[in-house]
Design a protein that fits this description.
The chain is an all-alpha fold. The chain has a domain of 34 residues. Helices cover 46% and strands 0% of the residues. It has 1 helix and no strands. The longest helix has 33 residues.
Amino acid sequence: MRPDSRPVNITLNLPSLPDEAVVEIQDFLYEILDLFMTHYGHQADRFYEGLSYDNLVHPDPNSLPPDDDPPF
């Protein structure tokens, strides 16, 4: 998500479907997701790796702020 993105509420009025149709649609969506991840998965992994705790800059716990540094 971009930093300027805002959540969007979407209401879908989905029709009732026969069980077989539900399973076929589900299989189709899984196939699309699999194709998407095959093509773009490395980019998503790279993005999340950059956000991992080990890759964040951590302040030195032994360093103290200067005496003239206001608390807020």
